[in-house]
Amino acid sequence: MQTPFIQFKEVKKKFGSLAVLNGVNLSINKGEITVIIGKSGTGKSVLLKHIVGLVQEDSGQLLIQGEPLNQLPRKKALHFKKSMSYMFQDNALFDFLTVFDNIALPLVETSRVSPSVLKEKVHTRMSQLSIEGIDHKYPSELSGGMRKRVALARALVTNPEVILFDEPTAGLDPVRKKNVHNMIKEYQKKFGFTAVIVSHDIPEIFDLAQHIAFLDEGIIAFEGSKQDILHSDMKSVHGFIRGKDIRYE
Amino acid sequence: MYTRFIYTIGGIFAPPITSVGRFFSFFGAGVWQIFTTPFQAGKVLDHIWFIGAKSIFVILLTGLFTGMVLGLQGYYTLVTFGSEAALGGAVSLTLIRELGPVLTAIMITARAGSAMAAEIGVMRMSEQIDALLTMQINPIRFVFTPRILAAVLSFPLLTALFDVVGIFGGYLSGSLLLGMNEAVYMDKVIRSVNLADIWGGFLKSLVFALVVTTICCYRGYYSHLSQQGEFGAKGVSLATTRAVVQSCICILICDYIITFFLV
User: Is B136–A88 a contact, with Cβ atoms under 8 angstroms apart?
Assistant: First the structure.
């Protein structure tokens, strides 16, 4: 059996007295799009932040290709972290930097590329995402959809192996939502990266997903494909994807 | 019973000790990054523009009026002893040794320090600092190191400007308004001030640069760790207020300590 690329094993996390993750078990395979769904405030973003190292687990293990992340040799751990990009829910663009500088930032700060190569890499991503000609604008001058695309361009500019998307379509209209979904699907196919997406766009997000995980009450209550989840007879899953709260049924 | 006692004592002392440790490791990490490549010359220049160049008008204005008030007060005090000739020396020494570095630092804290704390605080709240971490960019190097370098270069220059304009202000009120002999005023300025006074003033401004920048950046950077648990806009406003108040208090405490060793 293939070793999962990223694996959560009984991961628990508390913030003060509030238990957010109560023993999460989840496998993420290389080159796949994994979608994590669940009610707001159930810890989906916290789960994602564990992978990128922004949050540390209280107990349990996060395995990278079978090895615990916190026991990886420094060089290997750094290589793994460098191979990842994270797209934040609110984009986390730098207000004091122009669009060009925002997209170029990870390359400028972590590698030594010549100005001409830098320009070419940034402009390639900008044209792929249809945001050409806004190099000198600031994030505050852009629409919500444009900002999302700038954030996506920044996430893609380093050619990452793993991209973590935290609600990439929050606040977008249905047309833009579809565009972002198509974009992720298209680029995932093209570049072959591993994608982990936290989303509330049900059922549209299922068209993208190769693997779906439902986080409920701090555990992964369900894992499977689109067909599995649509035909699941689990009350909580059934209720969630149809927008019903079983407590009020 | 003993366990509870130790628990209570720990509960009281652990948070401030942790906070002091965090503060000094933040400072150490920021200073260490000054010596790592690539150097951030462009960012340092940007911050010199913000901390230094944009503070010039405020420094000119406060320096001028401080000097004028010193000239006015000094003249009427000295004239009662028949020693108004010492006005130039009194004004220049007061400014170069004490008021120049202290008031410059306080004015920069009010203008640029508060902005630093607020800007970094907003970066923290809007996950920009987290974004840096995910891009494997050292956030302390990115937000703090260029500012501390810019402050170390700007504070002494602004202090020098404050001193010169203040001495000119003393001349305006002492000689031009109250009719004291101009040559005597200037002669006393030149004769009273030693190089040691100027170095002492610069030493203070350098220490104030480190203190103000570290406190303001630290407060913004850790604005999410407020003990009262404020987050968002409230957290940023609280961080900014604390940064300004603590910077001003530390400026005065450091001023006393440095003066104690210099005199």
Answer: no
Whether A90 has its CB under 8 Å from any CB of chain B: the answer is yes
Q: Give the C-alpha separation, A242 to A244, whole Å.
A: 6
Asked if B238 and B26 touch (Cβ cutoff 8 Å), the reply is no
Q: Which residue in the set B130, B134, B135 is minimally distant from A109, CB to CB?
A: B135
Residue B186 · residue B124 · CB < 8 Å: no
> Identity (one letter) of the amino acid at A237?
V
Is B87 inside a domain boundary? yes
Q: Tell me the β-bridge partners of A7.
A: A27, A63
Taking the CA of residue A200 and the nearest CA in chain B, the distance in Å comes to: 21
B214 Cα to chain A: minimum distance (Å) = 21
8 Å CB contact between B127 and B25:
no
What domain range includes position B228? 41-262
Based on the fold, state whether residues A16 and A37 are members of the same structural domain.
yes
Looking at every residue in chain B, the average pLDDT score rounds to 91
Cα B212 to Cα B113: distance, rounded to the nearest angstrom: 7
Domain assignment present for A73: yes
Residue A105: per-residue pLDDT: 93
Domain identity same for A32 and A77: yes
Cβ of B134 within 8 Å of Cβ of A85? The answer is: yes
Same domain (yes/no): A170, A155: no
Chain B residue with CA closest to A155: the answer is B135
Residue-wise pLDDT for A141-164, tens only, equals 998 888 888 998 999 898 889 999
Q: Which of A15, A75, A94, A101 to mutate to test the interface with B (most CBs of B within 10 A)?
A: A94
Token couple for B23 = 């503060």
**pTM score of the predicted model:** 0.86
Distance from CA of B229 to the nearest CA of A (A): 12
Predicted complex ipTM = 0.86
Q: Does one domain contain both A45 and A152?
A: no
CB contact under 8 A, A92 and B130: yes
Mean pLDDT to the nearest integer, B247-255: 96
* Contact call for A110 and B134, based on CB within 8 A: no
B195-225: pLDDT as tens digits = 999 999 999 999 999 999 999 999 999 988 8
**Tokens at A40, concatenated:** 């707001």
pLDDT computed for residue B227 by the predictor: 62
Residue of A38, A27, A91 lying closest to A221 (CA atoms) = A38
pLDDT, tens digit, 9 for 90 and up, residues A60-116? 999 888 888 888 888 888 888 888 999 998 889 999 999 999 999 999 888 888 889
Using CA coordinates, name the residue in chain B closest to A96: B119
A85 touches B: beta carbon within 8 Å:
yes
